[in-house]
Specification:
Strand content: under 5%
Number of strands: 0
Shape: elongated
Length: about 80
């Protein structure tokens, strides 16, 4: 496992120092969990932005709507 040195603001250090009360075995476990949560949140936001872009493109592209309708005709019966 990699190691890194971080600097925290006083309030952050106070929060991290209560790691046991949040159910973590040590400060590192708490920081790792927070980073995992941040990564998931950022990935979801990126996916949401992508979906919104695709929705906008679909809304404005009549030919794409027609192609989609053709592809969906008879589905899921076929």
């Amino acid at each position: 496992m990699g190691q890194a040195k971080f600097s925290f603001r006083e309030r952050q250090e106070e929060f991290i120092s209560r790691y046991k009360s949040y159910g973590y075995k040590d400060k590192s476990a708490m920081v790792r969990a927070a980073l995992d949560l941040l990564r998931i949140t950022l990935e979801k936001e990126k996916l949401k932005e992508s979906a919104l872009l695709y929705a906008q493109i679909y809304k404005e592209d009549q030919e794409l709507k027609e192609i989609t309708d053709l592809a969906l005709s008879g589905w899921p019966d076929e």
